[in-house]
Design goal:
CATH class of the largest domain: Alpha Beta
CATH architecture of the largest domain: 4-Layer Sandwich
CATH topology of the largest domain: Metallo-beta-lactamase, Chain A
Structural class: alpha/beta
Radius of gyration: 22 Å
Shape: globular
Bound molecules: zinc ion
Number of helices: 14
Strand order of the largest sheet: 6-5-4-3-2-1-22
Length: about 450
Amino acid sequence: MKYTCWGAAKQVTGSMHLLELESGFKILVDCGIDYEDKDNKEINAHFQFNPRDIDVLLLTHAHIDHSGNIPNLVKQGFKGEIICTEPTAFLLDKLWIDSVNIQNNNHNRRQTTRLYGFKEVKDANEQLLTVNFNQNISLNSEVSFTFHEAGHIIGAASIRIEVKEEDTLKTIGFTGDLGNPGSKLIVDPTPMQGLNYLVTETTYGNREHKEKRSPEDVLIKYVTKTCVDQEGRLIIPAFSVGRTQSILFTLKKLFNEGKLPPVRVFADSPLALASSNIHNRFSDYLNDEAKNYKLVDGSLFDFKSLHLIEDKSDVEDMELYRDSCIIVSSAGMLEGGRIQHHISDHIQNPSCTILIAGFCSPGTLGAKLLEGRSTIRVKGNDKYVFAKIDQTDVFSAHPDTIGLQDYFEASNDGQLTKLFFVHGEEESMKELKTLLSDNLKNKVTIPSKGEIFLL
Ligand SMILES: [Zn+2]
């Protein structure tokens, strides 16, 4: 068989992997949006293969950089099944609709290309087929696959594919995005066994998570200091799927256990609200702590001082509120979304803290704040930075370099011959390679986009 990395080669976004079997059967694993193609005029608009030729799409998880170009694939003729877990299917619909709204908005403002519309989202939804974890499913007499828990976000899978060619069995695993062991709500990743080839994410290949305290202790520290001692506002930019839920769940526990006074919390993201409902509905997919909490309490996220921002009148109420509070809003890197209003309103307020809860790509507003700039441009205005800017990696949804190395060792059970590094910056991949044991180091390949490997 042939393996080609068509996306997330030496970069973090745009995941897309093509497997072509000798029989001609073609499997695509993930089909994400490449964030580096900002205008959607090149990589995202044109596939380097004919979408009509793809027989089946296996999807690791719902994040847009893995799933966001699927409706475009359908628009350009892909007719096969899109196979994923049930929580992923429910998240997809919300994320794709959100993606159409963003594309329409950008098209009107900046003349960027619209990749697809609501019709293609509906068509793609009709091609979805959901499967459970840990079930081996045959696609035909030569190929079968199994979804394993990847952690990362609810419903996220690593996919193990078995291919029979000329009487030999070849096994290739795709990690998708892996979770950080011990994460709030989310299960730990389960390494795949008996692999010949592993295509793995390397997001934090050369980085170690610094925060050693628990999410509870981190939030107690920031809420007490900012909202109680300084009577100010704590603003936490967070992705709508995954991180917002981890933060709200931790806050709910702290309030219920009386470890924090009932400070008002605004969750300002309609997508986060939809995503929270999906977490409650599919709580069986979460870790034991969350499952038990749901059984006893009935809900993972709602608490008395939580105000969900759904419509215009909620926004007005929030803007009139002047006391100390916590605001959790998207997007995580502060590029676009409702968070920009909050940054614009509070960046010159010295009693406000902006707690950045994750990695910010270079060039994003989040990265500029973390550089310690004294002024920034937000919503078209230059503003002084008087708010306190801080960062925590305690809610990270990816393993760090140690977590990745442990995962590789656990996957290396004797038959592994090649390890393909994808979904990371090139420098970070090269450094990660040097950190591996000699046995693993020699197996590492860093594919370029479009490079073909005969397996
Ligand atoms: Zn992801």
